[in-house]
């Protein structure tokens, strides 16, 4: 019924409440006891003083008897002595503890107002007071009053009993209240636990208290957002898987179909060669596709990081240009490069080479013979701009951002013929973002496309993670 947290919380609350109650009770008990003992000794002294006053008025046999007779009916004992402490009268049995107290009392210094001579009710049998009798300046004797401490103990026993019953009652009340208290605190947590379990099973979170204005409300809202993100990711993943399956199926169908055709008996050598060429081309496309999918999967991993180091951009561009130049020459497209000689940018050289290769490949594919493709870099205030501009047909205005989506191709049939997978720009974008940069496509007014990359000038710690 209770989660572990609520048990722990309950025990903690119980311990705290019990501790507080115990402290309060002990404090109350001690002060009550002191008060009661003071009260008894005060009473004792007042009675002793009254007897003494009576005796000072008339000190004779009948008054002495009168005092002892009066006290014999009470719980107290009165003992009257002469100035030397010899007992003259007593109202009850005199035992050794009582005589010892009288013997040890300092008779000479006793004040006329009387005083408590024994108050240690815990160790002694009696508490006692002394009221000296003085008549016309002469020290006549003493009125000693004794209260057996058993009276106090009895009274305290009664008090203790009451405390015990109140203690038990408050223990029961505490036990009764704690489950409510812990439930009050842990219920929203338990509800969120249930909701996240629903989420984990693929359901939708229901019953989250997102309206609360406290930390639990924050938590509930985070869970709600998490659930939406999870949904979006699930949908994206499904769409991506569907596209992957679709993209794989097309070349597979071609390969299968042409292989069947090539194996038909009586087919001409020329036709067989043509079919084999198609099969090879499709197999090549397939392996490119699989390779790029792997690449994307790697870029998607959370721990993917680009290793930034200072790179001379013109040298990097030279090595890329030497790779693509033969293809440009073959098609008859002019390739121009304009990069400041000494420009050094912090980037991952291998990854950035891959970016330039992709962009130049696209530019070449979409630029007709006789036109130009231009690679250039410009230094801005705190960034570096790298551009690949072509004079091709350009990208339609409303597709300028979607060309970076996975598998997106403006003209499906033409791209297929040119062997495009539609993953090139998606990979480029991931790499640039891993560098902490941005990429965007623009149409040139004169016709053609410009791909613009903005990179931080540097001052970074060297690595950039793509995840998060
Ligand atoms: N310079 C460009 N001019 C015109 N259209 C472009 C240009 N670059 C990209 N595109 C359009 O964007 C689409 C996506 O490009 P992307 O590089 O992602 O895929 P691809 O070139 O078709 O395939 P791959 O890069 O795998 O060979 C292309 O199919 C094309 O339609
Ligand atoms: Mg491409």
TrEMBL record:
Transmembrane segments: 12-32, 163-185
Single GO term (MF): ATP binding
SUPFAM superfamilies (UniProt xref): ATPase domain of HSP90 chaperone/DNA topoisomerase II/histidine kinase (SSF55874), HAMP domain-like (SSF158472), Homodimeric domain of signal transducing histidine kinase (SSF47384)
PROSITE patterns per UniProt: HAMP (PS50885), HIS_KIN (PS50109)
Reactions catalysed, as given in the entry: ATP + protein L-histidine = ADP + protein N-phospho-L-histidine
Known EC number: 2.7.13.3
Keyword annotations from UniProtKB, A to Z: ATP-binding, Cell membrane, Kinase, Membrane, Nucleotide-binding, Phosphoprotein, Transferase, Transmembrane, Transmembrane helix, Two-component regulatory system
Location of this chain's protein in the cell: Cell membrane
Signal sequence, start to end: none
Domain HAMP, residue spans: 183-235
Gene3D superfamilies: 1.10.287.130, 6.10.340.10, Histidine kinase-like ATPase, C-terminal domain
Entry GO terms, CC: plasma membrane
CDD domains named among the record's database cross-references: HAMP, HATPase, HisKA
Topological relation to the membrane, as annotated: Multi-pass membrane protein
Domain annotation Histidine kinase: ranges: 243-459
Enzyme class: transferase
Protein's name according to its UniProt entry: histidine kinase
Higher taxonomy: Bacteria, Bacillati, Bacillota, Bacilli, Bacillales
């Amino acid at each position: 019924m209770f989660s572990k947290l609520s048990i722990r919380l309950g025990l903690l609350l119980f311990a705290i409440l019990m501790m507080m109650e115990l402290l309060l009770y002990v404090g109350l008990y001690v002060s009550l006891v002191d008060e009661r003992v003071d009260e008894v000794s005060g009473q004792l002294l007042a009675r002793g003083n009254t007897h003494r006053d009576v005796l000072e008025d008339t000190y004779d046999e009948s008054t002495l008897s009168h005092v002892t007779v009066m006290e014999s009916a009470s719980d107290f004992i009165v003992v009257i002595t002469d100035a030397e402490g010899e007992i003259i009268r007593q109202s009850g049995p005199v035992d050794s503890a009582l005589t010892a107290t009288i013997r040890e009392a300092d008779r000479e210094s006793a004040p006329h107002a009387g005083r408590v001579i024994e108050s240690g009710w815990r160790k002694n049998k009696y508490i006692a007071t002394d009221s000296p009798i003085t008549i016309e300046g002469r020290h006549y004797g003493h009125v000693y009053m004794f209260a057996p401490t058993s009276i106090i103990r009895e009274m305290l026993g009664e008090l203790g009993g009451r405390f015990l019953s109140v203690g038990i009652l408050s223990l029961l009340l505490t036990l009764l209240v704690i489950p409510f208290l812990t439930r009050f605190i842990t219920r929203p947590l338990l509800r969120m636990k249930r909701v996240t379990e629903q989420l984990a099973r693929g359901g939708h979170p229901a019953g989250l208290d997102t309206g609360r204005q406290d930390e639990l409300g924050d938590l509930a809202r985070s869970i709600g957002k998490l659930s939406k993100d999870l949904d979006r990711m699930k949908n994206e993943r499904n769409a991506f898987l569907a596209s992957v399956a679709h993209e794989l199926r097309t070349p597979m169908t071609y390969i299968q179909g042409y292989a069947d055709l090539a194996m038909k008996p009586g087919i001409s050598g020329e036709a067989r060669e043509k079919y084999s060429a198609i099969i090879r081309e499709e197999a090549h496309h397939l392996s490119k596709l699989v390779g790029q999918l792997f690449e994307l999967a790697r870029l998607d991993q959370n721990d993917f990081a680009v290793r930034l180091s200072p790179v001379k951009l013109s040298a990097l561009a030279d090595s890329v240009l030497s790779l693509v130049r033969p293809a440009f020459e073959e098609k008859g497209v002019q390739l121009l490069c304009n990069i400041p000689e000494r420009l050094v940018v912090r980037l991952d050289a291998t990854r950035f080479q891959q970016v330039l290769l992709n962009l130049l490949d696209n530019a070449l594919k979409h630029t007709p013979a006789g036109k130009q493709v231009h690679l250039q870099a410009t230094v801005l205030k705190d960034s570096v701009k790298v551009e690949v501009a072509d004079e091709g047909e350009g990208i339609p205005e409303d597709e300028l951002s979607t060309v970076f989506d996975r598998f997106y191709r403006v003209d499906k049939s033409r791209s297929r013929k040119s062997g495009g997978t539609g993953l090139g720009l998606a990979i480029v974008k991931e790499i640039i973002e891993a560098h902490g940069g941005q990429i965007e496509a623009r149409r040139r007014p004169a016709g053609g496309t410009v791909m613009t990359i903005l990179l931080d000038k540097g001052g970074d710690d060297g690595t950039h993670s793509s995840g998060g």
